[in-house]
Amino acid sequence: MRIDIISVLPELLEGPFSHSILKRAQDKGLLEVHVHSLRAYGLGRHKQIDDYQYGGGAGMVMMCEPLTNCILDLQKDRTYDEVIFLTPDGQTLTQPLSNRLSLYKNLLMICGHYKGIDERIREEFVTMEISIGDYVLSGGELAAAVLTDSIGRLLPGVLGDETSALFDSHQDGILAPPVYTRPEEFRGRKVPEVLLSGNFKKIEEWRNEQAEKRTAERRPDLL
Ligand code: ADE
User: Fold this and answer.
1) Cα separation, 23 vs 166, whole angstroms
2) Smallest CA separation from ligand 1 atom 4, residue
3) Among the residues of the chain, which ranges form H helices?
4) pLDDT, tens digit, for every residue of 139-154?
5) Would you say residue 193 has pLDDT above 70?
6) Residue 28 per-residue DSSP state
7) I want to staple 139 with a disulfide (CB 3.0 to 4.6 A). Which of 63, 88, 113, 175 is the partner?
8) Which domains does the chain have, with CATH numbers?
9) Which of 84, 111, 114, 131 has most ligand 1 atoms within 8 Å of CB, for mutation?
10) What's the CA-to-centroid distance between 111 and ligand 1, angstroms?
């Protein structure tokens, strides 16, 4: 899969893809992430990318022309399955949505800044608008990083243990059960006996029970 990201602050996206699982995904050739600086498409000597909003009001708006020129440039080389705008008024990201997006080959993400982007860019180019939660970030970059991470780890071959993504919280619409590692006793707290029993049927039953209990306690809305 290839993900292109248009950003005013590409530096913000240097870290998240250079480590751990997403780095491994790129090293293995399973994922390509390309970050494009919108500033390169800015207008005039000052490379302007934003302007005052019509009708007045505080906050600048990202202009049509730089975004259009950047998007058209990228679309010369490939067709995008979705052009995604990260925005707090988009549909909320969920595991099923990440699962669906992980099946595509080419995604283009646009990170907003300031007051947002000119509405006509949304009408003209954007095919999907995604929010990572009901709170407002300073820009779309961290949201694009979250979305890229949640998609990238689902690509076949990215996770070492092929099955492990299947048991994540939310993957079955239910939270994951508790997990333990050594030592067997920590500050008087013992690892549940059943996990030491070697009885895999019992362990599986216990994990299912715990997952349901945890979901009922913490996220009854999921049941
Ligand atoms: N940009 C600012 N806040 C955001 C959010 N919650 N999700 C996606 N993009 C955003």
Assistant:
1) 21
2) 88
3) 20-27, 64-77, 95-101, 119-124, 141-152, 200-218
4) 999 999 999 999 999 9
5) yes
6) T
7) 113
8) 2-152 (3.40.1280.10), 169-222 (1.10.1270.20)
9) 131
10) 9
Cα 116 to ligand 1 centroid, rounded to whole Å: 10
Residue 115, SS3 per DSSP: coil
Mean pLDDT across the stretch 151-163? 86
Q: How confident is the model at residue 162 (pLDDT cuts 50, 70, 90)?
A: low
Q: How far apart are CA 212 and CA 209, in angstroms?
A: 5
3 falls in which pLDDT band (50, 70, 90)? very high
pLDDT of amino acid 163: 65
Q: Ligand 1 pocket: which residues have CB below 6 Å?
A: 86-88, 112, 131-133, 135-137, 140, 143
**Whether the model pTM is above 0.90:** yes
Residue from 13, 129, 137 to probe ligand 1 pocket by mutation (most atoms less than 8 Å from CB) = 137
**In ligand 1, which atom is closest to the CA atom of 112?**
1
Distance 144 CA to ligand 1 centre (A): 9
Which residue type, as a one-letter code, is found at position 22?
L
